[in-house]
Amino acid sequence: MTENPPLLEPPSDDFFMREALRQARKAAKQGEVPIGAVIVHQGRVIARAWNQVETLKDATAHAEMLALTQAESAMEDWRLTECDLYVTKEPCPMCAGALVHCRVRRVIFGCADPKGGGAGGFWNLLQAPNLNHRCEITPGVLAEESVALLKAFFAEARQRRAEGQAHAKGLKPGAEDGMVFDGP
Ligand code: ZN
């Protein structure tokens, strides 16, 4: 009697968060606050993006927003009801609102943002009872790695400023002051 091959384990949340962390590192390389996101449909990554606010000079160019646009295009539908979004930091209220609009099924994030998070850190827009869609939330996936990236980024920004060096994108004096997230 032949044995059936073992069923493939579906990729874990850690697996997809590692891909989001790779995107976050790309942001850091460009002098952007290191936040990355991927969107997964039926076990397949259909969108990958990193924060590009400074590069695009667009305050709405958060990783999640860019990933949502890609995913809508891939699905040829703005309804992402079978899609899950992985992001290295808790989404802000803008992104949380967009995630609800797109009806994303699950939102999995790395570190929390107690000052300005829109997924339960400060507000919970992803599960607001008065909205017509609620996302499942899984917090704290590979959070330490996400925090380490953010801390290293802001430490470097401060260092450059202290040294009076020419500032790269996103590292202008006071740039980090505008960030809601300032590290735990
Ligand atoms: Zn955002």
Mean pLDDT: 90
Q: What is the N-to-C succession of helices and strands?
A: HEEHHEHEEH
Task: Please indicate the percent range of residues in DSSP E strands (runs of 2 or more).
Answer: 15-25%
Low-confidence stretches: 170-180
Number of helices: 5
For the biggest sheet, the summary is: 5 strands, mixed
**Cα-based radius of gyration, to the nearest Å:** 17 Å
Hetero groups in this structure are:
zinc ion
| Helical content class | 25-40%
Description:
This protein is of the alpha/beta class and 184 residues long. The chain has 5 helices and 5 strands. A 5-stranded mixed beta sheet has the order 2-1-3-4-5. The protein is globular. The N and C termini lie far apart (57 Å). About 6% of the residues have low confidence. Zinc ion binds next to helix 4.
